[in-house]
Amino acid sequence: LPWRAVLAGVPGLVCGLFVIVPIGAALHVTPTWHLVAIPAVAGLAVGTAYSTGALLALLNVYFRDVRYFVIAALQALLYASPIIYPLSLVHNQTLRTLMSLNPGTGVIELSRWAFAANGTDPLGQPVLCSVVATVVLSAASVVVYSKFERLACDRL
Predict the structure, then answer these.
(1) Could you say which of 86, 106, 118, 134 would form a disulfide bridge with 127 (CB–CB 3.0 to 4.6 Å)?
(2) Please, which residues have CB within 8 angstroms of residue 72's CB and are 6 or more apart in sequence?
(3) Cα dist. 83→75, 79, 109, 143 in Å?
């Protein structure tokens, strides 16, 4: 069931990729071999969204206030994500490490590397943290769903 919510954004992603190609051509941007990382970026984003969404959906069955927490947490994570600026502009090492713990940071940095090809290496701490967080959250969601699925269906 959580796959439906995650995969609903895939057509928008595909349409966005078809829009970015003519824009890149109009701006005289030459494609590089970094574009092969786009499926990895999409897979990491979908995996992170699914695993987080699956756990939060199950928590929402037991605790009805989870949706309010999700709204506040998403806003906080939005400000803690290097969307407007690259992570390389953050010079404070403690702050950079804290920002790298956000699973979205690795997805953003990897997509920035794939599209911009500015020479910075994305395969560092942020991408590793995103991959580890996605694997841990996926494993946790499988274990939790297998244990509490019947109870959750009864509570609904």
Answers:
(1) 106
(2) none
(3) 13, 8, 9, 32
pTM for the structure as a whole? 0.77
Rg (CA), the chain: 18
List the structure tokens of 103.
Answer: 């699973």
Predicted confidence (pLDDT) per residue in 99-155, tens digit: 888 888 888 888 888 877 665 666 678 888 889 999 999 899 889 888 887 776 676
Residue 1, both tokens: 């069931």
User: Which two structure tokens, joined as six digits, stand for 59?
Assistant: 């928590």
C-alpha torsion angle, residues 155, 60, 101, 51 (rounded to 10)? 60
pLDDT of residue 117: 63
Q: Where does the pLDDT of residue 46 fall: very low under 50, low under 70, confident under 90, or very high at 90 and above? A: confident
**In whole angstroms, what is the distance from residue 31 CA to residue 123 CA?**
20
Closest CA to 32 of 123, 116, 122: 116
Q: Which residue has the tokens 């928590």?
A: 59
